[in-house]
Design a protein that fits this description.
Elements lengths: L9 H17 L12 H8 L3 H13 L3 E4 L3 E4 L25 H11 L5 E2 L12 H15 L1 H4 L8 H11 L12 E4 H13 L5 E6 L3 H9 L3 E8 L3 E2 L1 H10 L2 E6 L13 H13 L4 E4 L24 E6 L10 E5 L4 H12 L4 H13 L2 H26 L5 E2 L7 E5 L6 H10 L2 E2 L1 E2 L12 E5 L6 H19 L1
Parallel strand pairs: 3-14, 5-6, 5-8, 8-9, 9-10
Antiparallel strand pairs: 1-2, 4-11, 6-7, 10-11, 12-13, 13-16, 15-16
Helix pairs in contact: 1-3, 2-3, 5-13, 7-13, 8-9, 8-12, 14-16, 15-16
The structure holds pyridoxal-5'-phosphate.
Length: about 475
C-alpha cells in the first residue's frame, strides 16, 4: 500500500482512508472478491487509529463497495451484476417429444476439445481454483500406504469412509442422511443414469426443466425415453403451474430437476417452491431425480437446501458429485435414492461392479482433514467475482438486445442474443477464433433456444478472457445482423 495518509482534521480522516481504498478499487488494484487489509494492518500502515479505519470501512460498506464477512475480514464486493435484462423463459410445450441431441452435442464437443481453446463452452472451473495439488498429494500418499485395499474392488454401496463424510455434510443442508442411505457412483452422471433406469423404461415420458443440461437430454435419449419440457424462469426455476398441468394430462414416470443453480440458467428455486414440487409429485407417487451438483457453490450467505430436504416419502433421488468443487477427473459422485436404494445398488453392481477405490479414498480424506470448508469459501468468492466480471464484460461488448442471466450460484451465464441470431452460427464462427461456446439448441429436446448461448465463467478473469469476450461480442453482433 502507498504512502501513509497525513493525520490532520480528525473528523475527515476516515473520509481520506475510505477515499484511498475506493481509489484502489476504482483503479482495479483491488478487484471484486479481493480481501482488503485488516483494520489493524491498515491502521498501522496509515498511522491512524483503529476507530478511524473502522469508520472508513463502515462508510465503504454503506456505499456498497466492500462487505464484511464474519470471522474473515472485509472484501471488495462483486460489482452490481450487469444492467442487461434477464433472458426470457421458454414457452410451454404440451406434447412429449423424442430427444435427439446426441449428434449435435458430439459435434459441439469434438470441436471444443482442441487444446488452447478458450473454454467458454465447458462447465467446469479452472484446475487452479480447485484443490488440485493437495488432492493429488493426498491420493499419492494414500496409494503408497493402501496396499491391497487400494487395488481391491469397492462394491456398492461404495466406500464407507466417503459415505460417512457425505452423510455428515448432509446435516448442513437439512437432509440428515445416514451413510446407509448413500450409494457412491462414477460422477453425478452415473448417479443420474442409475436413478432414471430405476424408475423409467423405453417409451415412458419424463418431465424436465427447459432449458435442460444437455447431459440429461443425452441420457434420456440413450434410454429411449420421451420428455415433456417444462419452462423454467431464469431466477426461480421450473414453472410449477405448468408442471402440475402436465402431470394431470400425461402419464409422467419421473421428474428431473436441478433446483439449486441450474445449468444453464443459474436459477435457484425458493424453498417454498421446492416444498410444493416435492408435495405435488408425492401426491401422484412420481419420483423426483434431483441433481444438486452446484448446491455448494452459492453466492449468498447460506447453503440452499436440496428438494430432498422436503422428502417425506423417499421419492426424491438426490444425485451429486465432487466434479464442480474438487476434481472432475476423479469421477466420484453419489446418490441418496430414497426408497429405490436397493434397486440402485443392484443396478450399480450390474453396470460397473463399483467405483474406482483410490479416488474415493482421497476425496473422503480431503473432506475429513483437507480444509474442505475453507476451500469452498474461497472457491465461492472467486466464482462470484468471475461471474460478475464476465457479466460486465458481456454488457460492454455484446450487441444491443442481448439479455443475460443473474445466477445466484454456480459459474455459467445463459445469454439470450437478439432475436434471429443463430447460436449455431456463433458457435462455429467462435471456434474459428479459438473460442468455444455452448449453443442453445443442445439444451432442448426440440432444439429450441436457437438464439441463446451458455458461457462458462469458471476461469479467472484475465486480459486473454476479456479479449475473447470482446471477440465473441463482435461475432454475436455480426450474426445478429446476418
Ligand atoms: C448439472 C450437471 N449435472 C451433472 C454433470 C456431470 O457431472 P459429473 O462430472 O459428476 O458426472 C454436470 C457437468 O457439467 C452438470 O452440469
Amino acid at each position: 500500500m502507498q504512502a501513509p495518509i497525513e493525520p490532520q482534521d480528525e473528523a475527515h480522516l476516515y473520509d481520506r482512508v475510505a477515499a484511498h481504498i475506493a481509489e484502489l478499487i476504482a483503479r482495479g488494484t483491488l478487484r471484486p472478491g479481493d480481501r482488503i487489509p485488516s483494520v489493524r494492518r491498515l491502521s498501522r500502515q496509515q498511522g491512524v487509529s483503529v476507530a478511524t479505519v473502522l469508520q472508513a470501512y463502515l462508510q465503504l460498506e454503506n456505499r456498497g463497495l466492500i462487505e464484511a464477512r464474519p470471522q474473515s475480514g472485509h472484501y471488495v464486493r462483486a460489482r452490481r451484476i450487469s444492467a442487461l435484462p434477464e433472458p426470457r423463459a421458454a414457452r410451454p410445450s404440451s406434447s412429449a417429444s423424442r430427444v435427439s441431441v446426441k449428434s449435435l452435442v458430439a459435434k459441439v464437443y469434438r470441436a471444443a476439445r482442441e487444446p488452447h481453446i478458450i473454454p467458454f463452452g465447458a462447465a467446469c472451473p479452472s484446475p487452479e481454483l480447485l484443490p488440485t495439488d493437495k488432492l493429488n498429494r493426498i491420493l499419492s500418499a494414500i496409494a503408497r500406504g493402501a496396499g491391497g485395499a487400494g487395488v481391491a474392488y469397492d462394491p456398492p454401496p461404495g466406500l464407507p469412509a466417503l459415505r460417512r463424510q457425505i452423510a455428515r455434510r448432509s446435516v448442513e443442508w437439512g437432509c440428515a442422511l445416514s451413510p446407509d442411505d448413500i450409494v457412491t457412483t462414477v460422477g453425478a452422471m452415473e448417479a443420474l443414469h442409475l436413478c432414471l433406469r430405476a424408475v423409467a423404461r423405453r417409451g415412458d415420458t419424463v418431465a424436465l426443466e427447459s432449458p435442460a443440461y444437455y447431459g440429461l437430454l443425452q441420457l434420456i435419449e440413450s434410454l429411449g425415453i420421451k420428455v415433456i419440457e417444462i419452462p423454467a424462469h431464469p431466477r426461480t426455476g421450473m414453472d410449477l403451474d405448468t408442471l402440475e398441468e402436465m402431470l394431470e394430462r400425461h402419464r409422467i414416470k419421473a421428474c428431473l430437476a436441478i433446483p439449486n443453480f441450474n445449468n444453464p440458467l443459474g436459477s435457484a428455486m425458493p424453498d417454498e417452491a421446492k416444498e410444493r414440487l416435492v408435495a405435488m409429485l408425492a401426491r401422484r407417487e412420481v419420483p423426483l431425480i434431483e441433481d444438486d451438483i452446484y448446491g455448494d457453490l452459492y453466492f449468498g450467505d447460506v447453503r440452499p437446501r436440496p428438494a430432498k430436504a422436503f422428502d417425506r416419502k423417499g421419492l426424491v433421488m438426490l444425485c451429486s458429485s465432487f466434479s464442480k468443487t474438487m476434481a472432475p477427473g476423479y469421477r466420484v459422485g453419489w446418490t441418496a435414492p430414497g426408497r429405490f436404494h436397493d434397486e440402485i445398488e443392484q443396478l450399480k453392481f450390474a453396470q460397473s461392479i463399483g467405483g474406482a477405490t483410490l479416488p474415493q479414498m482421497a476425496i473422503a480424506e480431503f473432506l475429513e482433514n483437507g480444509g474442505h470448508d475453507h476451500h469452498l469459501r474461497a472457491l465461492r468468492r472467486r466464482l462470484a467475482a468471475q461471474v460478475a466480471r464476465m457479466s460486465e464484460a458481456i454488457a460492454e461488448h455484446f450487441p444491443p438486445g442481448t439479455r443475460v442471466s443473474r445466477p445466484a450460484g454456480g459459474f455459467v451465464l445463459w445469454i439470450e442474443l437478439p432475436p434471429g441470431t443463430s447460436a449455431l452460427a456463433v458457435h462455429e464462427r467462435a471456434l474459428e477464433h479459438g473460442i468455444s461456446v455452448a449453443p442453445g439448441p443442445i439444451f432442448s429436446a426440440k432444439h429450441r433456444f436457437s438464439n441463446y448461448i451458455r458461457v462458462n465463467c469458471g476461469y479467472p478473469f484475465s486480459d486473454l478472457i476479456e479479449h475473447a469476450v470482446g471477440t465473441l461480442g463482435r461475432i454475436c453482433a455480426e450474426a445478429a445482423e446476418a
